[in-house]
Automatic annotation (TrEMBL):
InterPro entries: Endo/exonu/phosph_ase_sf, Endo/exonuclease/phosphatase. Residues 19-140 form the Endonuclease/exonuclease/phosphatase domain. This is Endonuclease/exonuclease/phosphatase domain-containing protein. One of its GO terms (molecular function) is catalytic activity. Pfam families: Exo_endo_phos. It comes from the Eukaryota. It comes from Brassica oleracea var. oleracea.
Length: 174
């Protein structure tokens, strides 16, 4: 975990870059430390990283369902630290792997990578969002943060203009 104090937009802020341990008991130590940070901070605070945890089975596709109690430590850290998710663009299933061997192997996708921030951060950056990029050279998607206004990309409406039917040049290029 890397925790940085910085000045952004003239305000003192905290940026925390997290790697959640693969071992659940060690990961719980990370949640305890983040909870202590959250309880002690009134300044804007931003967290991003591979947290190696999900908030519930709804953030998982494939494989066996997990016991609901296994999500409690992570969800408690988020709630007790006053952290909020960002609006997201892209596929939030940020990790993909195969479990099992042979014909019984199954593909599992989870939202293990994320960004969170406290209310003060969201107030400082009210239009911010995260974007989940394509998987390139890794089994994880990169998560990017943007403070620009979140707008959904939409395709323009297709309009057919029958006047083009009279243009012979168009037909020769089709």
């Amino acid at each position: 975990m890397i925790d940085i104090e910085a000045v952004v937009k003239g305000k003192q802020v905290f940026l925390t870059f997290v790697y959640g341990d693969l071992v659940p008991k060690l990961r719980e130590q990370v949640w305890e430390r983040l909870t202590r940070f959250g309880l002690a901070r009134s300044e804007p605070w931003f967290i991003i990283g591979d947290l190696n945890e999900i908030t519930g089975n709804h953030e998982k596709d494939g494989g066996s369902l997990r016991c609901a109690t296994s999500f409690i430590p992570f969800n408690n850290m988020i709630r007790n630290s006053g952290l909020l998710e960002f609006p997201a663009r892209g596929n939030t299933m940020s990790w993909q792997g195969r479990r099992g061997k042979g014909k019984g192997a199954v593909t599992v996708r989870c939202c293990l990578d994320r960004a969170l921030a406290n209310e003060e951060w969201h107030t400082l950056f009210p239009c911010s969002y995260t974007e989940y990029l394509k998987m390139v050279g890794s089994d994880h998607r990169l998560v990017a943060f943007s403070e620009d206004k979140f707008t959904r990309k939409r395709r323009g409406q297709f309009r057919f203009d029958k006047r083009w039917l009279a243009k012979r040049v168009l037909w020769s290029r089709l």
